[in-house]
Amino acid sequence: MVIVASLPGELLSKIFDYIDSIAQLAACRLVCRGWNYLAERSMFGKEIRIKSEKQAIQVYTHLCRNPFNGNLIKSMHLEGIGKKEIPPIFEYLMDIAFTPTMEELTGLVYTKKFFNILVSIAERYSLEFVNLKRIPKYAHDNDGYMSARTLKQLQASALSIDIQPFSYAETLNWKVIKLLDKFKYLRSLELKGEIDTWSIVDPVLKKCHTLETLTFYGLHIGDFETSTDRQEVHSWVIIHKVIKEFSLKAIEFKSSVFSPPLIEYLMYKYPNVTKFTVTRRYLHLAFEELQRIMDSIKRVQYKELTFILQYDVSMWEAIAFAEFCSDKVEFHTDSSDVIMKIS
């Protein structure tokens, strides 16, 4: 008979990592001394949500017993930070929990002092915070400048920005865009917002020379220029001296509108893309326009485009597209929706 306590520590750690509930992991710690340390490590590897000063004190007290566990924290969400003053416990907690291994620190803060605290902590480390992808939003900063500036100071590797944070804005979000070329280690960029035309992304992307992943999230193109043909796009990139970047490997569209001209521009600028994905989105293109996109990403090694076909989409046209498309096209249903997947 195999005794559970005899399992190797590495295997136990893997098992604990699959347990999502922090309460269950806490129960595992009580089983025996051998499980206590391993379950504790897995607990700190989960997202830690702090909703009050009381919870902040509990986590801080726990970390004080073994400050090294602060290095295990990768994701933390903060609530209950005062609107006028930061409760001292949050400063003490950040002093232990905010380390170069942190990947996400989320929440909403009301004072700039919090960002100054993060920067001052980071200055004590010789390592850059290159794993950091997200920090709390500043409540009085709709364009995301404070968070972006702080991420730049921390030399983070990921950034999410609204190209035009206000629907009535006539110009791009230059306060944030001007920071882009100051990121030494920027590997991942997420663009959101509403733009007038596909070409607006160029002044944004021309400032990024180290990207490996580019994501469009909830992007909306105002005039939806599908009328621009392939030759016009090619002429545009030549006239505007678009610089090719060879580090980018993956492009993803999440619930975003996109057009053939935008995709053709991206394929020109990033010739080394090996992964192109579109997550579930209502198909907003005619099938000939979709085929134009498939032609432009033909060289991409891995591609996966998933669309919901609305009631006004002709299934006959969809089937005809599938027959002539050189890529694999599959149809299936999900509840009342018809899903088309191209890979």
From TrEMBL:
Q: Which residues form a coiled coil?
A: none
Pfam families attached here? Answer: F-box-like (PF12937)
- What superkingdom heads the lineage? Eukaryota
Q: Which CDD domains match?
A: F-box_AtTIR1-like (cd22159)
Identify the SUPFAM superfamilies for this entry: F-box domain
Describe the location of the F-box domain by residue ranges: 1-48
For this protein, the record's InterPro entries field holds: F-box-like_dom_sf, F-box_dom
Spell out the protein name for this chain.
Answer: F-box domain-containing protein
